[in-house]
Each structure stands twice: as C-alpha cells, then as structure tokens.
Amino acid sequence: MKYEVIEDDGFKYIEAGKGETLVLLHGLMGELSNWEAVIGHFEDRYHILVPILPLYELPLLTLGVKSLSKFVHKFIKFKKLGQVVLIGNSLGGHVGLVFTNSHQENVKALVLTGSSGLYENAFGGTFPRRESYDYVREKVQFTFYDPATATKELVDEVFKTINERSKVIRILALAKSAIRHNMSKELSRITIPVSLIWGKQDKVTPPEVAEEFHQLLPNSELNWVDQCGHAPMMERPEVFNDYLDKFLNRILLK
C-alpha cells in the first residue's frame, strides 16, 4: 500500500487530500488497502481519512458496534472535524449507521456498501476449520463474485488473523454483536442522504438486504454493481467510484 499510516494520540489512520471530509470505515476482516482505489480516485478533490478501527485493542467485555461507534466519535473530535461524509463497508457500514443514529449533526451524508445492520451471512458463530488454508481460501472467495479477487496476499492475511487465538475471539465477539444489533427499528430516524452501493451477487449481505435498507432509510438511493460481491470498492472500483462521484456531486456541490 502506497499510503503511510499515521500514528498520533492512540489513533492510526491514513490521511490524504483537501476539501470536504470523507471518512472511510473498513469491515471486520478489512484492511486499509481495501480503500486504495477510492483514495486514489478522490484525493485530488476531497480530504480523506481512513481510521484503523481498534478491533483488537478495545476491552473484550465492551467490544461491539456501539464501542466502535464511540471510537469513531472520539476520532472525529480528535481531528476537529465538522460534518463528514461517512463511507462504510460491511461492519464499517454498521458502525457508520450506529454513529449517525447518535450523532446525525456530525454526518452530512452516509454511503453503505455491503453493510451489516439488518442481516448477514458471514462466517457464522465459529471457524470450524480455521487451521485449514483451503477452507479459509474458500471462505474469502465467498466474499467476491470473481474468486480471483481473493488474492494469495488477502487469504494469507485472513488465515494469519483467524489463527491467532486472541484475534479470533474478538472477531467472533464482533460478529455476534453485529448480528444482535439489528437496526430495522432505528433507520427511520436517519434522515440525511444515504447512498447504497451494492454488489448484485453479494452472498454475505444479499440484495434483499440492500432493498430493505432502501425501504427503511427515508432519504436513500440504491445503486447496483453487477458481477460483484460483498466489497464493490475492491472488486469493481471504477463502478463504485462512479456512483460515489455522482452522489458526492449531488449532495456537496449543489
């Protein structure tokens, strides 16, 4: 990854560009590099921040989407930001929803791609064969429409992570927290503009999840990315960036 990770006052993050602020939130197994094509496309026009969510640092007893939302709040205060556009993939989208629900005054608009918060078909409650590299590769490939997107580097990273006992316990705790924290009754309160950019072949948060989000979020638009799974910004970055470009132009440049 070509972007330097900044460490300051207990936070780790990437920062690039100037202008209106976009805060990008990664998923449970996500890396900062997942957002590289987005940063590269928008850094000449926007101020981009990509914080590393403290999945492995927060106390296990309080670890969940709410504690990660509180972390985002602290990060935004630390950077002395006004209103931001939050863009979240998978668990990052869920964290963005929880944050927006509590601090709507801080969020100009929200972009969700493959977000949890209603339903997800992820690894489930355990990793029954986490010591099997082939099993892990199949699970990573399940995330994408094109299995080739699951590079050896990506599979190696996931394999290493879920075979560290302290990390896998936290991943499972977070996955369970996301499943428990269903937001269907809260979404009507989020009245800011929301763009849903969704893979048509997403098997983790399937298309009906996007349709339900669209129905429950009163000021939302739904954009489909064909031949694409759970992470459009990685698998079809040109299409994702085009949808995001149009949405940002509409809400920020009017």
Word description of this protein:
With 254 residues, the chain is α/β, with parallel strands linked by helices. It has one domain (6-121, 182-252): 3-Layer(aba) Sandwich (Rossmann fold). Helix content is 39%, strand content 17%. The protein has an 8-stranded mixed beta sheet with strand order 1-2-4-3-5-6-7-8, sandwiched between helices. Helix 2 crosses helix 3. The N and C termini lie far apart (34 Å). The model has no long low-confidence stretch (mean pLDDT 92).
Topology:
Elements: E1 6-8, E2 11-16, E3 21-25, H1 36-42, E4 47-51, H2 65-78, E5 84-89, H3 91-102, E6 107-113, H4 133-142, H5 152-162, H6 165-180, E7 194-199, H7 207-216, E8 220-225, H8 232-235, H9 237-252
Parallel strand pairs: 3-4, 3-5, 5-6, 6-7, 7-8
Antiparallel strand pairs: 1-2, 2-4
Enumerate the strands of the largest sheet in spatial order, edge to edge or round the barrel. Answer: 1-2-4-3-5-6-7-8
Strand content: 15-25%
Radius of gyration: 17 Å
CATH architecture descriptor: 3-Layer(aba) Sandwich
Total number of helices: 9
Order of secondary-structure elements? EEEHEHEHEHHHEHEHH
CATH class: Alpha Beta
For the record, the count of structural domains works out to 1
Shape: globular
**Estimated helix fraction:** 25-40%
